[in-house]
Amino acid sequence: MKALLFIGLQVDLLPLGAAEIPESEKVIPVINRLLPHFGHLAAANFSLPANHKMFVANYPWRRPGQVLDLMGEKILLKHYFCIKGSFGAEHPMNLNQEKIHFTALMGTDHQCLPHSAFFGKNKKRDTGLNAHFQKNKIKKLYLAGLNESNALVNTAADAIEMGYQTAIIEDATKGPDQQNLGEALIKLKKMGADILSSEDVLAELKK
Question: Residues 6 or more apart from 110 whose CB is under 8 A from it?
Fold first, then answer.
């Protein structure tokens, strides 16, 4: 069985949000067009406590963009975004949400950096997404959404490592730095991921 997994489609990562990703709004109509063609849909959302160790407000005299060395761990400090329970952590109203079967929550532990839709950093804090996919006999994942904190790229790498057939829908994906995202997609392709357009996906699903 195949599933569509979208990552980080939340108000704070869209235009005028606290951590706006350029052109992020363009992925929503693409994803909405794909949704009716999938029998299974999952989301991965950031759900960060205000005292999370990545937030610059928790360190006096620090600025966003600084890298903090905390007991040997490098942490890129950021402004607040996608705070648990906030409007900014919600899906946008123009995203069709009716078919979402499971939502994985990333970054819920203030001491563990978000990593992917499956795990926190260093495979800590399992989100339950893999168990959900195993229970529903999902074999192939199509990934879309926003690459905040490298979560989409890391999700693809984790999925490949766990044995899922993995495809990234290129025109349904945006990141804070498109050049870095493009380079990451090349690496993922070498790891075994398919890099597809939404038209490729529709054609594949109709076979």
Answer: 48, 49, 51, 52, 53
